[in-house]
Give the backbone structure.
Amino acid sequence: MARRGGTVVTCGSSTGYDHSFDNCYFWMNLKRVVGSHGMNLHEAAEMMRLLKLGSVSPVLSDVFPLSEVGEAARLVQTNSHTGKVGVLALAPEPGFGVTDHQFRARIGEEQLGPLRSSPQPALVG
């Protein structure tokens, strides 16, 4: 959703490269579509290497249950957040989707959540 004259930014094409939309909607409402990408194949491989070394870690400052997605969006909208904000869409608790518990333990919860206001529960593997 974007206001009249606003910009819609697309990122990636996880469901394929063929996109269909009503161009009249964009044209009549003076919207523009801008494409964006995160990285190329070489950059993605380098990022994975750094993640595996523990040199770079995805840091979440806040994690919200799906029932509080509005609050999470408001924090981002008002720029009241620090770091990344996550929403547990299908997970009942943080860490539910972790598949490599040894790797996560090696990196350490304090490395993954240094900006969180409340400590996260230790993950049992």
